Amino acid sequence: MLQLVDVTKVYRGGKRAVEGITLDLQPGLIGLLGPNGAGKSSLMRIAATVTRPTSGQVLFQGRDAVAHPNPLREALGYLPQDFGVYPNLTAREFLAYLAAAKGLSVRSARARVDELIQLVNLTEALERPLGKYSGGMVRRVGIAQALLGDPKVIIVDEPTAGLDPEERVRFRTLLSDLSVDRVVLLSTHIVSDVDSVAADVVVVARGRLLRRGAPEDLLRDVDGQVWEATVPYSEVAAVRAVHTVSRMVRTTTGVRLRMLSPTRPSADAVPVAPDLEDAYLGIIGRSVAVGR
Ligand SMILES: Nc1ncnc2c1ncn2[C@@H]1O[C@H](COP(=O)(O)OP(=O)(O)OP(=O)(O)O)[C@@H](O)[C@H]1O
């Protein structure tokens, strides 16, 4: 439905944020994972037609969405990373304003706004000005506005920033439900945001696509390479210098480390089943090791 073809973004001043990324996106939830500065937001802005690629193509239903962005814009719900609100409007006024800008009729806008306010759990704060909302509440308004107009493509950039754990789970479930017949592209640097909801994971770093696959494929990459061992606190730095450590828990007997290593890292290390966080760190770690 939405394709990025060999997309590159070079900002004024020469910063290369995206380096030849090709992605064919079909309905479903696609998790775009990468560390800070990987180029996720740049890629999302290009996919959302708010930034033009320096080279490469964006195609929506086979048509050029760079030269003719309107068909994609009409089908799009976008939550940018730097989403802002008008502080003097209430949530209802703000959403009604955006619904009007999207061309929804007054009647269908009113029903949709009420529905969305319930969906993102803002009913109680409805009549308060947005300037008095917490960061997490503003985020929820952002999610609601992205869903106005029943979009076929939903692009959400770090949507869970500022949400509490319960809201995160709720939001993950919502996006998963929506992805049944829509493209939902979610960017994050938090692996648990895509774990168990994304059937398709894309890992980017330094502007490049490093790996794309189903979570089970990514887990297979590090099968037999994840270990746990307890080491004295004084040895932690030495272990970390050699291995990617994905978890560290201080215990009464030392520090319990979870680490990636192609071979058993120490005599007392026990193999454990990999999770997506291990797989992700493995991909990022390998890309650093080979200098990509
Ligand atoms: N408008 C801009 N002008 C110049 N450089 C930019 C601009 N926007 C982003 N960059 C740079 O491009 C690189 C990629 O940034 P981008 O925001 O796309 O990454 P990201 O993966 O979304 O990271 P984060 O999660 O920190 O936002 C970074 O080095 C960033 O500083």
UniProtKB/TrEMBL annotation:
Residue stretches in coiled coil: none
GO molecular function (one): ATP hydrolysis activity
Transmembrane segments: none
Listed Gene3D superfamilies: P-loop containing nucleotide triphosphate hydrolases (3.40.50.300)
Source organism, top-level taxon: Bacteria
Pfam short name (any one): ABC_tran
Occurrences of domain ABC transporter (ranges): 2-231
InterPro entries: AAA+_ATPase, ABC_transporter-like_ATP-bd, P-loop_NTPase
Keyword Amino-acid biosynthesis among record annotations: no
UniProt keyword list: ATP-binding, Nucleotide-binding, Transport
Database matches in CDD domains: ABC_drug_resistance_like
Family, similarity comment: Belongs to the ABC transporter superfamily.
Identification of the protein by name: ABC transporter ATP-binding protein
Lineage, broadest ranks: Bacteria, Bacillati, Actinomycetota, Actinomycetes, Pseudonocardiales
